[in-house]
Amino acid sequence: QVHLVESGGGLVQAGESLRLSCAVSGRSFGSLGMGWFRQAPGKEREFVASITTDGANSEYHDSVKGRFTISRDNGKSTGYLQMNNLKPEDTAVYYCVAKGKISIRWEYSGQGTQVTVSS
Prior knowledge:
The protein is built from no helices and 11 strands. It is mainly β. The strands form 2 sheets. Strands 2, 4, 5, 6, 9, 10 and 11 form a 7-stranded mixed β-sheet that branches. Strand 5 (46-51) and strand 6 form a beta hairpin.
């Protein structure tokens, strides 16, 4: 069974930075594409960023382009989301997700970590 555990969330002021981590176990990390979603209170879960198994390609939601960077360290079975210049609208629970290389849907998700940005 695949387990994803997020860490690194917290309370910061607008303009500050945070780095989220996602530790993956139960399956070869290098065989999994991974990504991040977030859900703000009263809103639907939305896509934030994703990265391919080898880290060669990534995608971002328009609202975070230029501020967030997704990365991975296959040797440590860990993915990251570096978030810079945070804004109050980034406040949400952030979820790490993963899927097999050829899978269409995100198969696995962590429990989430809270990010709160004060103005």
